[in-house]
Design a protein that fits this description.
This protein is 38% helix and 20% strand. It is α/β, with parallel strands linked by helices. A hairpin with a 4-residue loop joins strand 3 and strand 4 (33-39). The chain starts with 8 loop residues before the first strand and ends in a 9-residue tail after the last strand. The site of nicotinamide-adenine-dinucleotide has 28 residues, from helix 8 and helix 9.
Length: 487
């Protein structure tokens, strides 16, 4: 098997196996071929991983932030040196084209390690509070053992987005990747050790929805950061609340992208395509409801159709491929079912709408698909599809489109394309979402906070704000004189 790792889990600085765990087959989405066989963590592996994190965390937190940051920055350098190898593994894990993974996956993971490695020495300071004669000070202290649980669309990036701020702040982490993409994060664990991370500070264990709760409910776990769907988020946040644990929830979306008739149309089409087709549409923040002002609707659609039909769909390991397969057979079936639902509910199919002719036999391919005349009530306009399916809706009036954009349980992201500066800011100000873009879409550099509102979750990843979610404040009151007691 061409991507078989040394063992399923990475615990306390080394690969470990427990063949008693349920078999997880790693399937290359482009061919359906089994490329590795791993085992889900047994309760014994979960215990070992949490115990090693707990033991290692004290030593790690006792190091100076500068020394911790040095390790993370070295790991970022190693990831960049091995970008090609890590990107190919990410492509095998996810089916995303190498053209993307080479620029967006290990590199964004490395950005995160470099950024948090760099700010560790300055962003964790507390404050001094004068109180007349007395005074107080605050410290930012790590939470302890944190659990990261990942989705399958950006396995290496998600792992680093969680591990980098957690480790920079002096926590230890046990990370569980999605059962669909078990391979890449093991390499990140290896690289962190090579960079000088003490054994046990970062551990990877495999598993699925039965394994996750063992981590979430473990009494030695202080925090869970989940990237996943809203239903999973509800379960994890509910379990964590029962034990008063910290949580960060990075969940799903059905985000609006509003294109006004004064926008640069070609740029807006580019933004809409990136926000629907990148990673075969498997991006949480995608602008899957594209509201186009009526005056430019048909021009927008005809140019969009022409550009969409030029997209190169194919073998993700070929450099020229722009769209690869979906991650799994289950996701393939789900996306095709939504496309059929769109047709049945009366949306106008502009292009795509099924499996590409060349790929009817193997791999989980779907044509990049555009529906027009989509209405707010249609299933494809309300539910997250997580595939390359763009829904174009139309509008006349600004206030009306803002209300429709907000009429969803989700609140992850949104965007607006317009040449009118005042309108751009007025509209994003009213949009109910955690991350918004003006005249672009889906750019998430590590310097800016990312996260959702409403059912899309809470907490923020990236930027110095992420450190707040991996630390808590300790306040110390210092009396400078005798106690004044009435007793
Ligand atoms: P999912 O919710 O099915 O699974 C996510 C992870 O949770 C997996 O590792 C899974 O094994 C684990 N899990 C499932 N049930 C669990 C439980 N009860 N307790 C603990 N862990 C459990 O999501 P998915 O299908 O892997 O990913 C797609 C979803 O993720 C989409 O909804 C997408 O929008 C969302 N997503 C969000 C972001 C973000 O940053 N907001 C980023 C990527 C993906």
């Amino acid at each position: 098997m061409r991507a078989q790792p040394k063992a399923s889990h990475f615990v306390d600085g080394e690969y470990v196996e427990d063949a008693a765990g349920a078999v997880i087959e790693s399937i290359y989405p482009a061919s359906g071929e089994v490329i590795a066989k791993l085992h889900a963590a047994t309760s014994g592996i979960v215990e070992r991983a949490v115990a090693s994190a707990k033991r290692a965390q004290g030593e790690w937190a006792a190091m100076s932030p500068t020394a911790r940051g040095r390790v993370l920055k070295r790991a970022a350098e190693i990831m960049r040196e091995r970008n090609r190898e890590l990107s190919e593994l990410e492509t095998l894990d996810t089916g995303k084209p190498i053209q993307e993974t080479i620029v967006a996956d290990p590199t964004s993971g490395a950005d995160s390690l470099e950024f948090f490695g760099g700010i560790a020495a300055t962003a964790l300071n507390g404050s001094h509070i004068p109180l007349g004669g007395d005074w107080a000070y605050t410290k930012r202290v790590p939470l302890g053992v944190c659990v990261g649980i990942g989705a399958w669309n950006y396995p290496q990036q998600i792992c680093c987005w969680k591990a980098a701020p957690a480790l920079a702040a002096g926590n230890a982490m046990v990370f569980k990747p999605s059962e669909n993409t078990p391979l890449g994060t093991l390499k990140i664990a290896e690289i962190l050790i090579e960079a000088g991370l003490p054994k046990g500070v970062f551990n990877v264990i495999q598993g699925d929805r039965d394994t996750g709760p063992m981590l979430v409910n473990h009494p030695d776990v202080a925090k869970i950061s989940l990237t996943g769907s809203v239903p999973t988020g509800r379960k994890v946040a509910g379990a964590a609340a029962g034990q008063m644990k910290h949580v960060t929830m990075e969940l799903g979306g059905k985000s609006p992208l509003i294109v006004f008739d004064d926008a640069d149309i070609d740029s807006a089409i580019g933004g809409a395509m990136l926000g629907n087709f990148y990673s075969t549409g498997q991006v949480c923040s995608n602008g899957t409801r594209v509201f186009v002002q009526k005056r430019i609707k048909e021009v927008f659609l005809s140019r969009l159709k022409a550009r969409t039909e030029k997209i190169v769909v194919g073998d993700p390991l070929r450099e020229e491929t722009q769209i690869g397969p979906l991650v799994s057979r289950a996701q393939h079936e789900k996306v095709l079912a939504y496309i059929e639902k769109g047709k049945a509910e009366g949306a106008r199919l502009i292009t795509g709408g099924g499996i590409p002719n060349d790929f009817s036999g193997e791999g989980f391919y779907v044509q990049p698909t555009v529906f027009a005349d989509v209405t707010d009530e249609m299933t494809i306009a309300r539910e997250e599809i997580f595939g390359p399916v763009m829904c174009v809706l139309d509008f006349d009036d600004e206030a009306d489109v803002v209300a429709r954009a907000n009429a969803t349980e989700f609140g992850l992201s949104g965007g607006v394309f317009t040449a009118d500066l005042t309108r751009a800011h007025r509209v994003v100000d009213q949009m109910q979402a955690g991350t918004l873009w003006i005249n672009t879409y889906n750019l998430c550099p590590v310097e800016i906070p990312f996260g959702g509102s409403k059912q899309s979750g809470f907490g923020r990843e990236n930027s110095a704000a992420a450190l707040e979610h991996y630390t808590e404040l300790k306040t110390v009151y210092v009396a400078m004189g005798p106690v004044q007691s009435p007793y």
